[in-house]
Design goal:
Structural class of chain A: alpha/beta
Number of helices of chain A: 11
CATH superfamily of the largest domain in chain A: Aspartate/ornithine carbamoyltransferase
Distance between the termini of chain A: 23 Å
Strand content of chain A: 5-15%
Strand order of the largest sheet of chain A: 7-6-5-8-9
CATH class of chain B: Alpha Beta
Order of helices and strands of chain A: HEHEHEHEHEHEEHEHHEHH
Largest sheet of chain B: 8 strands, mixed
Oligomer: heterodimer
Number of strands of chain B: 18
Largest sheet of chain A: 5 strands, parallel
Shape of chain B: globular
Helix content of chain B: 25-40%
CATH topology of the largest domain in chain A: Rossmann fold
CATH class of the largest domain in chain A: Alpha Beta
Number of strands of chain A: 9
Number of helices of chain B: 14
CATH topology of chain B: TIM Barrel
CATH architecture of the largest domain in chain A: 3-Layer(aba) Sandwich
Shape of chain A: globular
Radius of gyration of chain B: 20 Å
Chain lengths: 317, 428
């Protein structure tokens, strides 16, 4: 009997995943999609398992997506958010880990503003860890749900031209997506204004351009990133008006993309800043499918990890 | 006879005398009285057999943090100077970012008293440039000099105000005190925690561009040219800063610089490979390979004046935070010499005489403190080195109270074999 493809107890980043592992998650997610269409949206797969959602940074979208995924798998879940957590007050990683361990969770979902905190906690925890976003480093479930959405819409990922546009320097979505999509054989381009580009951006593993038009020329997938000009990014770009003028996706600009190109966005969208409303709401937009698929992909990840860490076979869905 | 000693038969390496040969060193009354082969032994003289060892002018670490007063849970003057002795150093210059800050002669006097009580190594306090390190008012350079301070620095942070820097450089000339600058343009370093480059990009970590250092060095050197002050650049980390220093030296300005062992041996790729281990976090950050290689060339061609450890102890609990939250700095007193012997001298980057210059003669000259030479009349400070001894860096054995080092597990050839301070043999 061959080795099972999935043997991991943690999902920390796409960097560690092989192409086969990524495909295995996507294939597993397929079987969870229809749960959402059932009258009773629940399977007993993770009954008796405890999942702790530890969000050290505010998040509505990702935390609710995980929470719904956990509930649909019948797991018992507990949410800790920034206000009730103490890591930010200087609690050591070891103390955080010990306190979690004392509650004997099966899985811990972690979002943190600092890179590699989930990795550091995973080293110190017996339970499985899922990275729900660590600073601008990785956001593996987002990349997996994006790849899943692309594959469902286009039938494949390999050979597709994907453009990712926005604040590349500060986006965890970019890093995980470039890794994931290139492992699946896509041809990825990142684009954004120079002050929003990191040093040596080519080291991300994608083609780099500095114009929106150039990025979307011949693209099959255009992924727009949320721009947050309210914080330090103010120094990186003068105004929302100017951003939309040069880097906002409009229907007119979209004509440069391939026929049947799809528009993606990790949400929440800023209408009239990085994306025009008619594009966000148009037939090419798969933004809400991403949200729906996010639940199925997270169910798949929870299912695979719970099976590995507990050492027993979870009931198949 | 107190403070007297004959060190027999070692290989004496002393760049001030152009000496690299088997010689004896005679110390009487705390001072070197003779240095040469086959010296006759005075009666009742304590002797050390240094056969097989290298004998050099006592090493001086011109940039350490001893944390006392105020943060004795990280280090004390006693534990820090014992670590110095164990690491082959006869003297250390300690930075003023204690609590309270050393911005007053009473603090300098306290540190000297504590050092004397401990007896492991000489301590040279460095006074703050500004009261409370706040960058607003100058400290009393004259009173600090009289109390025993050897330099002025706001280390840990830059002298930020150009106006204060200009006045400090001018006023320090009265006392011939070097101004040691932690050169960092704080708005450019921002929230950065590692070198800005391909590895910070891959990790999504906020970067500190090399320009953060270079811009401040550049400004400072214009003020040095303007004032004729003495300027020493602490923990230089970039190729461009080195170019700026070279140019200032060529123009005849009184400028010197130091590099830490970790900036000579590690890069931002090591930070990446460590998985953001907080023991790889320091200020300035570990830079690119190109920067590291430029610094190594600066050692060889003489444009780098000194090597210092920037010994910065932190309690293990403080480094048990994530990389972004953890404090900056690593300990270095007990690793610097072996690292330099194995990775710089044995690798042929520099020779042993140059290393002695970098770790002893130059710091002595820059700070205006005794030592740096074994010529008769010099202070009787000696470091003994065993070039053959193989050591593995094991933080559990450190005399320092802290353990934060990125070099744990490194196997190194060449190690300190003892120190002599004013003719007194130190057993750390």
């Amino acid at each position: 009997m061959s080795e099972p493809v999935w043997q991991r107890g943690d999902l920390l980043g796409v960097a560690e995943l092989s192409r086969a592992e990524i495909l295995h998650v996507l294939d597993t997610a397929e079987s969870f999609v229809e749960v959402a269409a059932r009258p009773i949206k629940k399977v007993p797969t993770l009954r008796g398992k405890t999942v702790i959602n530890l969000f050290f940074e505010p998040s509505t979208r990702t935390s609710s997506s995980f929470e719904i995924a956990e509930k649909r798998l019948s797991a018992d879940n507990i949410n800790f958010s920034t206000s009730s957590s103490s890591l930010s007050k200087g609690e050591t990683l070891l103390d955080t880990a010990r306190n979690l361990e004392a509650m004997a969770p099966d899985l811990v979902v972690i979002r943190h503003a600092h890179p590699r905190v989930p990795h550091a906690l995973a080293e110190r925890l017996a339970s499985g860890v899922i990275n729900a976003g660590d600073g601008a480093h990785e956001h593996p479930t987002q990349a997996l749900l994006d790849a899943f959405t692309i594959r469902r819409r286009k039938g494949r990922v390999e050979g597709l031209k994907v453009a990712i546009v926005g604040d590349i320097a500060h986006s965890r979505v970019v890093r995980s997506n470039v890794l994931c999509l290139t492992k699946l054989g896509a041809d990825v381009t990142v684009a954004g204004p120079r002050p929003m580009m990191p040093e040596e951006p080519e080291s991300l593993g994608a083609r780099v351009v500095y114009s929106l038009d150039e990025a979307i020329e011949g693209a099959d997938v255009v992924m727009m990133l949320r721009v947050q000009l309210e914080r330090q990014a103010r120094a990186a770009f003068p105004s929302e008006r100017e951003y939309f003028e040069f880097f906002g996706l409009t229907a007119e600009r979209l004509h440069r993309a391939n026929d049947g190109a799809i528009i993606m966005h990790p949400g929440p969208i800023n209408r009239g800043i990085e994306i025009a409303s008619d594009v966000a709401d148009g037939p090419w937009s798969v933004i809400l499918e991403q949200v729906a698929n996010g639940v199925a992909v997270r169910m798949a990840v929870l299912y695979l990890l719970a099976g590995t860490k507990s050492g027993e076979d979870g009931a198949t869905p | 006879m107190s403070g007297s000693l004959l060190i027999r038969g070692g290989r004496v390496v002393d760049p001030t005398q152009g000496l690299d040969s088997s010689s004896d060193v005679l110390i009487e009354g705390g001072r070197v009285t003779a240095c040469g082969p086959g010296l006759p032994a005075p009666e009742n003289m304590r002797e050390i057999d240094a056969a097989g060892l290298v004998v050099v002018p006592g090493l001086i670490d011109m940039h350490v943090h001893l944390r006392e007063p105020g943060q004795e849970y990280k280090e004390t003057i006693e534990t820090g100077t014992r670590a110095a002795a164990a690491g082959g150093f006869v003297a250390v210059a300690c930075m003023p970012n204690t609590d309270p800050v050393n911005d007053d002669p009473s603090l300098t006097e306290f540190m000297l008293k504590q050092a004397e009580r401990a007896g492991w190594a000489r301590v040279y306090p460095i006074s703050a440039v500004s009261r409370g390190l706040l960058g607003r008012e100058l400290t009393e350079f004259g009173a600090q000099r009289r109390a025993g301070a050897v330099a002025i620095s706001d280390d840990g942070r830059p002298v930020w105000s150009a106006a204060l820097m200009r006045q400090a450089l001018r006023y320090a000339r009265h006392f011939d005190l070097p101004l040691i600058q932690h050169a960092e343009e704080l708005e450019l370093s921002g929230d950065g925690v590692m070198h800005e480059g391909r590895f910070s990009t891959r990790l999504g970590v906020e970067g500190i561009p090399g320009a953060a250092d270079d811009v401040m060095v550049s400004r400072d050197l214009l003020l040095v040219a303007d004032t004729g002050g003495r300027y020493h650049l602490a923990h230089m980390s970039t190729a461009r800063s080195l170019d700026l220093i070279r140019a200032a030296k060529a123009d005849g300005h009184r400028v010197t610089c130091e590099v830490s062992a970790h900036h000579l041996l590690l890069t931002d790729e090591d930070v990446f490979d460590s998985g953001l281990d907080p023991d790889f976090k320091m200020h300035p950050p570990l830079r690119s390979v190109a920067d590291r290689d430029a610094l190594a060339r600066g050692l060889a061609d003489g444009s780098v004046d000194a090597i210092a450890s920037d010994h910065a102890p932190h309690h293990p609990d403080e480094k048990e935070l994530d990389f972004v939250a953890a404090p900056n700095g690593i300990v270095g007193l007990e690793t610097t010499l072996s690292l330099c012997l194995d990775r710089l001298v044995a690798e042929g980057v520099i020779d042993l005489a140059r290393l002695v210059d970098l770790l002893s003669t130059a710091p002595s000259r820059i700070l205006g403190v005794p030592g740096g030479s074994l010529a008769p009349g010099s202070s009787g400070d000696v470091t003994l080195i065993d070039l053959e001894r193989e050591v593995e860096v094991d933080p559990a054995t450190f005399r320092s109270r802290s353990r934060n080092t990125p070099f744990a597990g490194w196997k190194l050839r060449g190690a300190p074999a003892g120190t002599v301070v004013g003719g007194r043999v130190i057993e750390a």
